[in-house]
Design goal:
This protein has 189 residues and is mainly alpha-helical. The protein is built from six helices and two strands, in the order ααβαααβα.
């Protein structure tokens, strides 16, 4: 039994042993008494999703993005209608065309279909880039407002309210409303 414990200790990595020694020293050290610990610092949170969806700047970015999406969807619908028209044309003329001419039209249809797929993929990438750009712009403006509010009110820590990170926050530490007011005032002013 004793030899098995010694074997277990020998198999522990050096860093694990050092960590245990450090923790033991820390726990019994008089340097870390409660009286000497620094006062707790408040951590404030901002719900960036609310800022993006409720601020004037965020709404404008959403509207710009939606307009761009609609414009590009219209363009893609026109391309799809063109493909459908070409396919109907081939079906209607299949009895009248020679096999070589029919084959050429089918190849042209296939090629145009591939081009439309590439255009669609490019459009999605461009829209993703545009959306990211719009969001970054709103976030940059929001961060500038948060910095000003922090300087004015003495906030030392402000983090983004993320449900996977922040489980609970008392409403007095949530400064989202203040940020929204200041951002909207900056946008209007």
């Amino acid at each position: 039994m004793i030899s098995s414990r010694l074997e277990q200790r020998r198999n522990l990595p050096v860093w694990s042993i050092a960590k245990r020694i450090f923790c033991a020293c820390l726990a019994y050290s008089p340097a870390f008494t409660a009286a000497e610990m620094p006062a707790a610092t408040a951590v404030y949170v901002v719900d960036m999703q609310r800022v993006l969806s409720e601020s004037i700047t965020g709404k404008a970015a959403q509207n710009n993005f939606k307009a761009e999406v609609q414009k590009r969807q219209l363009k893609m619908e026109q391309a799809q209608q063109e493909l459908a028209k070409l396919q109907q044309e081939i079906q209607g003329q299949s009895a009248l065309l020679s096999s070589q001419a029919l084959q050429e039209k089918k190849e042209r249809l296939t090629q145009r279909g591939r081009e439309a797929e590439r255009e669609m993929a490019d459009m999605r990438e461009e829209l993703t880039r545009l959306n990211d750009q719009q969001i970054r712009k709103v976030i940059a403006e929001t961060e500038a407002v948060i910095k000003k509010l922090s300087d004015k009110n003495g906030y030392q820590f402000v983090i983004s309210k993320d449900e996977s990170f922040v489980v609970f926050v008392d409403h007095k530490y949530d400064i989202t409303d203040d940020v929204l007011k200041a951002l909207d005032a900056k946008t209007l002013g």
